[in-house]
């Protein structure tokens, strides 16, 4: 191996995820993560080893690289895998091609024109339904027929590491008819994964479940921050708005769908049978272990959730087929959130709302404090990885600290 | 006057709206509408009359021009007004600077990163509440406190003239629990206006109602197409999704806020009093006459709605203040829809849903047919203009034909 890869690294030779990084001496450019390093693709391009216009590696986002198509992007990934494992390859004895991740700054990997958030975990939808609506009929009638989704805000999606301020907004005190204004008292994370489209369509065109994999470039971790008190007051009838659009964080490395291929598993049985345009063949779920940790200011990390992406009722192929069945067009770089990924166990719930069950079961922290929701100074960290037969493919982390409201 | 301006033209000397056009011999570029002509700004720039980098007029969108700031964009508008009225100005005897609108193709005036749709007409919200929810409590408790809004799809916003196909999707037949898939039977227009931000903010920053005018570059007409049968089945609990994102049309000319200044009027009294961050001073509503016509295939246009933008309960300054009060960042070119603009009179309702009252009062057309919703082959045209003391400032039209589902 050309570069040392720590055992259990998310960024093994089987992964080769793409991202945008900068260093003290040089502006943002494309790279791939390998072990604790980044292979600088703009620098590799100088070796004249690629047969396409490598100006795409000098861009501030990966959109133009992705636009080259999977024939090329998959070949780049395969070539790098081959070169890294060959001690006499073009990458040999060229330490200048590698940057320590600890010495790099990560940036948004893609420009996102449109962001859609789904609601595809049955456990999450059921939990929320129990708390906010009718415990006896927690799951709404449309939920098993439609991969329910809504449009989110693209502008406020930021990369892991950027601290954000607690949002302010309107909320309604219990038993009051007069709303008040102030800092949210119900700041929450949502453990999600997001996929990024790698191919555009024109208005009027649809993507079938069979075609979907070809349109999905890769995946990231997504923390879809939510302000539950703002959400509760504003969301009827048109859905969440200010409760969500103050920020969402994504992990910086896009793990390709091809790297995740070995971790495909069967999804939950869908009953009643879905309409033909939502039916699919083969395995479309992915076994990706997920966890969430909270680091209170001045304390150490405490894991509060273990979940798995394989729990999702609706898969990405169904989400994309549904999204486009009416002719809605998609662009390269668009982001699609899974919705909060909750499992059946209480420790697998993907939000504080569910973990502390609307504040009725506060989480005890190691420093003696309790958490119903997220406190100022808390850092929330999400991690995800797949592992099978000695192969590990991971996402690293998406991490952000909450600063007090301005 | 350098160019002939027909009496009652929307594009009078008082207007000077900006847009992007192309001609058979030349690619898209910036222009202003004047009478039946377009003044080619890229060509005017060749006269060396502007003291900024005029490459902005050669771009495919106005975003970079708008980014110059209102000091410059307003001066361009004022200079053009002055030059057009001066028979010996730099524009005199240069017919090559003018293109007939009938010989130009209009394009999207801006690149839209994010699209937000509000719901700010009390009459519309009340009508929808009566039909879809509880006639006795049609207006939801939050409506008088919050300029309710939600995120829409940016990718499918297209410019006037582009025909679109009727969307397909899931709907639920009355008294059934099993949804069906097919072409929407409830295709509807929504008469809206949209404003476009002319200044960006960073994540965490807010825009006050006092600052809002400075952040609004101008306005367009907006037809926010809706599929009512799809909407009814999908929209609980996260809001409209496929019922809206198959297409929205905007008019091609952005009328600046400065051109609309003479038409400011007082808005409706807001009771109960709104929270301090939503309070405002001065006039923030605009007296803009609106109308909607339907042209059945092979027949002539029939006006089905007369409304006015001044009816809006929530104004644009309040919408923008609300949108950013949680720190959500905005970008130049972002579009904000008003929501359907309905008045009190039955002929002022801004959608077929309301005009034909959920199909119970079909509209009789001149060709003998009836309309509950929009038919294949129908062309829907919206127009808007302000008029006062002999000054007319208008938007032209937003127009689109509905093709059968694919």
Automatic annotation (TrEMBL), chains A, B:
Its cofactor is Ca(2+); Mg(2+). Gene3D superfamilies: Fumarylacetoacetase, N-terminal domain, Fumarylacetoacetase-like, C-terminal domain. It holds the Pfam family FAA_hydrolase. This is fumarylacetoacetase. The active site is at residue 124. GO terms for biological process: homogentisate catabolic process; L-phenylalanine catabolic process; L-tyrosine catabolic process. Residues 116-384 form the Fumarylacetoacetase-like C-terminal domain. The keyword Methyltransferase does not apply. Substrate binds at residues 119, 133, 231, 235, 340. Residues 14-109 form the Fumarylacetoacetase N-terminal domain. Pathway: Amino-acid degradation; L-phenylalanine degradation; acetoacetate and fumarate from L-phenylalanine: step 6/6. It is an enzyme of class 3 (hydrolase). GO terms for molecular function: fumarylacetoacetase activity; metal ion binding. The lineage of its organism: Bacteria, Pseudomonadati, Bacteroidota, Flavobacteriia, Flavobacteriales. Mg(2+) binds at residues 224, 244, 248. Its EC number is 3.7.1.2. It comes from Croceitalea dokdonensis DOKDO 023. It comes from the Bacteria.
């Amino acid at each position: 191996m050309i570069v040392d890869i720590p055992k259990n690294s998310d960024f093994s030779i089987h992964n080769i995820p793409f991202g945008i990084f900068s260093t003290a001496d040089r502006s943002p450019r494309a790279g791939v993560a390998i072990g604790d390093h980044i292979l600088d693709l703009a620098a590799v391009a100088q070796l004249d080893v690629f047969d396409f216009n490598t100006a795409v590696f000098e861009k501030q986002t990966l959109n133009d690289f992705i636009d080259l198509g999977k024939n090329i992007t998959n070949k780049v990934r395969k070539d790098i895998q081959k070169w890294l494992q060959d001690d006499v390859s073009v990458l040999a004895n060229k330490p200048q091609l590698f940057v320590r991740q600890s010495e790099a700054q990560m940036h948004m990997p893609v420009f996102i024109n449109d962001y859609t958030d789904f609601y595809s975990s049955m456990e999450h939808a059921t939990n929320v339904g129990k708390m906010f609506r009718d415990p006896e009929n927690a799951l709404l009638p449309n939920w098993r027929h439609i991969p329910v989704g809504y449009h989110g805000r693209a502008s406020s999606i930021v990369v892991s590491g950027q601290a954000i301020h607690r949002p302010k907004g309107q909320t309604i005190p219990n038993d009051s008819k007069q709303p008040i204004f102030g800092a949210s008292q119900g700041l929450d994370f949502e453990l999600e994964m997001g996929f990024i489209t790698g191919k555009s369509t024109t208005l009027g065109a649809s993507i079938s479940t069979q075609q979907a994999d070809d349109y999905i470039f890769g995946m990231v971790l997504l923390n879809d921050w939510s302000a539950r008190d703002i959400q509760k007051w504003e969301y009827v009838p048109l859905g969440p708005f200010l409760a969500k659009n103050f920020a969402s964080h994504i992990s910086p490395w896009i793990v390709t769908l091809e790297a995740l291929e070995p971790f495909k598993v069967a999804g939950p049985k869908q009953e009643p049978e879905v309409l033909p345009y939502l039916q699919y063949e083969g395995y479309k779920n992915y076994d990706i272990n997920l966890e969430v940790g909270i680091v209170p200011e001045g304390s150490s990390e405490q894991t509060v959730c273990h979940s798995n992406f394989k729990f999702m009722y609706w898969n990405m192929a169904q989400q994309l087929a549904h999204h486009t069945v009416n002719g809605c067009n998609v662009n390269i770089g668009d982001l699609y959130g899974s919705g909060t990924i909750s499992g059946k166990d209480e420790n697998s719930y993907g939000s504080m709302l569910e973990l502390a069950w609307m504040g009725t079961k506060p989480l005890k922290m190691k420093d003696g404090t309790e958490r119903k929701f997220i406190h100022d100074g808390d850092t929330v960290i999400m991690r995800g990885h797949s592992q099978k037969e000695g192969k590990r493919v991971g996402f690293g982390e998406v991490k952000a600290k909450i600063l007090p409201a301005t």
